[in-house]
Structures are given as C-alpha cells and as structure tokens.
Amino acid sequence: MQDIVTGLEELLGPEVVTRAGDVPEAYRHDWSGLTPVEPLALLRPRDTGGVSAALRFCNAHGVGVVPQGGRSGISGGAMPVAGAVVLSLDRLNRIEEVDPQMATLTCGAGVVLEKAQQAAVEAGLMLAVDLGARGSCTVGGVISTNAGGNQVIRYGMAREHVLGLEVVLADGTVVTALNKMLKNNAGLDLKQMFIGTEGLLGVVTRAVMRLQPRPPHTATAFLGLADTAAVIDMLARARAALGPQLTSFEVMWPSFFHHMSEGTGIGSPLTGRHGVYVVIEASGFAEGGARAALEACLEAALEAGTVEDAVIAANSREERGLWAVRESVAEFARVVGPIIAFDVGIPLMRMDEAVRRCESGIAARWPGALALSYGHIGDSNLHLVVSVPSAGKNQPETEVKKLVYGIVREMAGTISAEHGIGLIKRDYLAYSRSPEEIATMRAIKAALDPKGILNPGKVLSS
User: Fold this and answer.
1) For residue 365, which of 394, 318, 402 has the smallest C-alpha distance?
2) How far apart are CA 210 and CA 216, in angstroms?
3) Domain span including residue 83
4) pLDDT at 419 (0 to 100)
5) pTM exceeds 0.85
6) 63 and 7 assigned to the same domain
C-alpha cells in the first residue's frame, strides 16, 4: 500500500497527497457520528485534471476512492474506508461565472454553498437551494446527495437546480456537459446519473446551477394547531391561497417543540400549549403582497377553527425569532445528548399515524427515551430524533432502526427523504426499493465502475 501512496505522490505531487498518519482529523469523518477512520491517504487536487489523474491511477491499481465535499452529511456517505484514499474536492472552490442573462452560476464542486448563494445575490438573483449547513456544505456535495432543505415546497430538491455537470468517471474519463440551457433534450440527460448518487458512479468536479429571481419581500408566521389533521388542512389552505408565494411550511410536534424550546431557553411565541406547531413563510415581489396574502389566509383559517393561535413577524428580527426553535437542531448534542437521527418520507395522510406509532413504540420499548418529531410536512418529510438517556453513548441504534424503518416500510414510505443512504442506511435500502430497482442500480454501477472503486461499501450492500 505504501507503493500506492508513493505512486500517487509521484503522479500528483506531495502538496496534493497526505499520507496516513498525517491526515487531519476533519477528513477522517463526516457528521454521521460514526467512528473516525484513517484513510490510506488524503488527495486534494486543484483541478479536474488532477481528479482525473487520481482516479485513473486508483482504478488501474484497484484502490477505493471516497469523494468528500463539506463532510456535512449525516448518512456516512463521506466516511473514509480503511485501505482506500479520500478524494477531497475542497480546492475546486472557484466560482467561474454568474450569467444574469441565462440566470446561471458555474462553479467548482468545492465551492461552499453559502459562497455560491452570495455570488447569486450580488448578481441580483438567487440560488434557491438552502440548507442549515450552508456555511460548510459544498455545491458538489449538495448535488451528489440531491439535498433538500426548508424551501423544497417552492423550489424543489437540488436536482431541480442543476443544468449541467462536469464529472470524472472511475477510469479517469472526464465527461464535460456544462449545459446552461433550460431546454436541452439532445439524447440522454447524463447529469441525472450523478445527482443524488453519492459519488457511486462518478465524481462531480464542476456544475452549472440554475438561478431564480430573488423575492425581496417575505412574511413569516408561527401557528398553533390542535392536531396533525388540522396541519394538513392548513397546508391545503396555504397552497390554495398563496400559490407560488408559499416558500416554507415546517411542522414541529410537541415532543420536539416543547423539549427544544425549553431546553434552549428560546421559549414559545404563543401563549399556552398546542397539539402541533407550524412555521409558515411566504415570499413575493410586490411590497406588502406576501404579508397581505398570508394574513388573509390565516384569518380564514382562524375563523374556520383550523388554527388555534397565530403570530406574524413584524420585521426580519422577529422572523428569525419565529424560526429559532425549528433551527435549533444544532443544539441536539447539548440539549438532548447522544442521538439516533432519522430522515424519512411518509405519505401525507399517514403522517399522524407514523408519528404516534414511532413515539409510542419507542416509549414502550425504552422507558424514559426521547423521541422528537419535526419536519418538512409539505414535502412528506419527517425527521425523528431518538435518545435513550440510560444507554449513554451506546445508543441502541440497531433496535431503534428496526422499529422506525419497519413502520416506514409498512406505510410505503422511504427510509431517506433528503440525506442519502451512505453507510448508515445501506442495509435498509430494500425497505424502500424493490429487488428489480436494486438490481438495476447494481447494473448501472457495474457498467460505470466495473472495479467498484468509487465510494466502496456505500449505498449498495455487497
């Protein structure tokens, strides 16, 4: 193996290759909570040519390659593998062009999402992909995981924002398809094979992202409702009344909201307690338009009894306050302790049943356990965080996963709504995909990466 590293040093240069033992801690893990792994070497090429050379060499020698972006994923997709090299794209961090006429942004895969967002704003536009990890996740990682976020209900997943890609295949072949046109039906849309596939089929090196007009006006409200049925009714009302102005519709069940609002000291903007809580955001281009539309929608919902109580932010500071508990997930370690996190998709009309069964099932099996439910209900996306205090750092992950994913499977849901499969969910893929689907995935993988060097052991079990 040392001969392999020496060969990589001779090919790429010692400034690109870091040997095992000297690899910084940050590159040994991602946000999945898995135990850090020392890779064979860390490769940090500066351009597509360097990525191509590295993959060509590793493919020829049968060495596994784990691509890394900002390492902010929670499914273990960027976790190093013993005996494999880590290929970081963080030096491919140049924004090449913002084209206001075509409404596109072309950049390297290593560009931090927030930097790309800022470049779009400076051009009078908006990159509508937005995540809580915007300050650390990279464009390449967002694409490779088909990331979601709080604005999916209006703008869609990352897939909706990718017009073109440059990708390096396992054998080092560079496929440059940096399309900037919204309409381009010339043959197969190859970029789709690399969006959301977690580096299994190729390494994204450059991208053309679609930009949107930036709505200058927003209106945010915080609602208290009796139950999930009322939330679903409110969602239908919001869609009908606000149309494309509806930007976000986030739900927090009492398990999450009460625990996190009290544990963080943020508190509640409403008096009294409610069965479910919702943050709703509208945005538009006419001054006062989004607020007027949201106010009218809420007034009708209050009169109909759909909403029990509501407050609308008067300014941007109050808007941030209404979002504060929903965005307090970074405080889990302090407020909750060791956690087992779930990102699942449930058919909307079974969401209430899913929450009740998961929370009650966990409470019955592990008395004193915490099961906190929240999510992007407009996208049928449920987040569940479980912690068994009595277990300390040795959380009963296998047993909890079997319970939760079993319920998801019964409800014809998905085990991964927006965070990929990686290592953590690999063994449960068959809960959401048929044998025929998985066989097709394997066939595509074998065709593009016959030696299986790209992100070995991830997504598809051996």
Assistant:
1) 402
2) 19
3) 2-88
4) 87
5) yes
6) yes
